[in-house]
Amino acid sequence: MTNDRERSDRMTASVSEPTPMPDLSEKQLEEVHNIFQVFLKKRNLRQTPERFVVLDAIYAMDDHVDADELYIRLKQKGNRVSRATVYNTLDLLLECDLVVRHQFGKNQAKYERAYSYWQHDHLICLDCNAVMEFCDPRIQSIQEMVAEIYQFEIKSHALNLYGHCRRENCPNREKAHVGAEKAAVKS
């Protein structure tokens, strides 16, 4: 029988450390642009520079971003793009599978690039709203086994784990714990 310590060590060893998505090669970025161009052309939509600025910004990031954050980042970099263009372009990028949208709890939807994307799952801190990615090959194995048992073709999955991070640098950790202590004292 395995003890909890051994089980914990095995889990830690098999779960990769959070790492940013790898940068795409020049050729892969070219392919992303090509996919988007073909998509727009098929729908008789204009291939505007602003749409490609949004696409390039998403692919230059290695974090999850909501539409308003993306808009602000683009404006700070001096890009002339409207908030409506950001929202509309994100919808188009979702439609052509170049972007993935995540809804983490009650927060605004977050986006991340999807081309050359590896399956990963998320830990979401309820105190600071930090989103940490992790990948555990056992989840993929379970997914494949379930698909085989139920004769089901799985296109994607989402696993989001919510909790309180124990990181010392969590900006809201102290506020959350003080608030919880005050609530406990009142009851």
In brief, what are we looking at here?
The chain has helices at 4-14, 26-42, 49-60, 67-76, 83-95, 137-149, 173-186; strands at residues 99-102, 110-113, 121-125, 131-134, 160-163.
Structure description:
Helix 3 crosses helix 5 (83-95) and helix 4 (67-76) packs across helix 5 (83-95). The N and C termini lie far apart (42 Å). The longest helix has 17 residues, at 26-42. The strands form 2 sheets. Strands 4-3-5 form a 3-stranded mixed beta sheet, with no helix packed on it. A two-stranded antiparallel sheet has the order 1-2. Strand 1 (99-102) and strand 2 form a beta hairpin. By secondary structure, it is mainly alpha-helical. It is built from 7 helices and 5 strands, in the order αααααββββαβα. The chain is 48% helix and 11% strand.
Secondary-structure element string: HHHHHEEEEHEH
The CATH architecture of the largest domain: Orthogonal Bundle
Over the alpha carbons, how many angstroms does the gyration radius reach? 20 Å
Range of strand content: 5-15%
CATH homologous superfamily placement of the largest domain: Winged helix-like DNA-binding domain superfamily/Winged helix DNA-binding domain
- Helicity range of the residues? 40-55%
General shape: globular
Mean pLDDT: 79
- Spans of at least 5 consecutive residues with low confidence: 1-19
CATH topology of the largest domain: Arc Repressor Mutant, subunit A
Question: CATH class of the largest domain, anyone?
Answer: Mainly Alpha
Distance between the termini: 42 Å
Reported for the largest beta sheet, the result is: 3 strands, mixed
